[in-house]
User: Fold these one by one.
Assistant:
Number 1:
Amino acid sequence: MNKQQQNSVMLFLASFSAIVAGQVIQSNGSSVMDFSQGVLTGIGIVGMMMTIVTLGRFNKRREQ
């Protein structure tokens, strides 16, 4: 496993953890907790998209 693959795996794990944390936190009507959930979920989604782009670039380069 080279450095780029390790970075992609770590990005995936961090994104997945952010999404899970965003879903596990209970807001109980608090605006701050609702905002925190949204931020964590948003960061997780963006991280997952970046993981897909990174893996796509890696596979494209590997095929050539």
Note: The mean pLDDT is 91.
Number 2:
Amino acid sequence: MWNNRPIIIRIKRHENVHPFIQALHAQHVPLKRVVFREQEVSFETTMHYLPKIRRVRRRFRLKMAVFYADELQVFRAQIWTLLGLAFMIAIPILCAQVIWRVDIEAATPELEQRLGKTFHETFQLETPLSQKKLPSNTVIRQKLLEQHRELSWVHIDKHGGRVILRPQESPKQTEQTTDKLASHIVATKSGVITHFNIQHGERKISVNDTAYEGDVLVSGVLESGTDQVFVGAKGEVYADYWLECSFKIPTKITVETLQQKQWRVLIKGIHEEKVDYVQRKDLPNWLSPYVSIVEEQQTKTMQVELDESKIESLLIPLLHEKVLRSLPAKTIIKKENLLQAKWGNGTVEGKVLFLVNENIASPIQGLQGE
């Protein structure tokens, strides 16, 4: 097995060639494809018999050249080739079971740093690590959204041994503020209290308590003996509650994704004058009428067909984003459970249960009994 590699031996024509070949037959050396030409004689054998052939050649004083017969073959039936092929297959399989890097790609370096710090402090993972030790996408997303309320979603992509976290910030919303303090802050929905952000007033409920619609959460009136002192109530009270939503969407949808930003030079008279851009470079007055340098944000449109394999990666994020846009500012969705999904007639319909964390505080004017 070790020396069965085929070889071709070429010998210059000489009167001793025939005795040489007869001597090889006498020593039971197998010869294949023996060809006699005007200038040379060639035949095939294996590496196993090469030492014996060389001893006979020296006796007849012939000039001999040796070539491998399988140099043009891609696969050779040799032990080292088989071992190399086994390693070539095994190494990628073994490496795919290991997470080598966890990267964060955010809109700003500051957000990447904050999210990276939260990820390492929460999960305390050191790379490289086994795939089994990495928490599920749902757990990672829930923990990050709980601690970064400015985010609406965290996309998690896995490419071989690399995990990429792409946070998506919530759309900026303006809130109307008033300097007038309310008498009380009451609950607009039922839920379990998670945390407070109170500037004025006295809490009437604790964290992890269940509040019901209409309950007083923060009182702006303090009692001192028989007197009541108005201090006003102002702040936010966040609570978790479950929100069930039904959906019905086509299985074939058009998705637009943002591509990498790029700078573009526009020359008047050659390029279109009206171009959507993110920002524009200031140029000298003598150059600006003729040339513009703008940063464009390109989008890519593609057709996607929804199926069961795209529930986690596409359907749930679409529903998450749609529901989040319908909720008040600073609301986050901690978790989502797909209750049911049914495909038919070119559509998919079903129900999703969202765990929502929302500011349920509503200020009211006028003194009320508690």
Note: The first helix runs from residue 17 to 26.
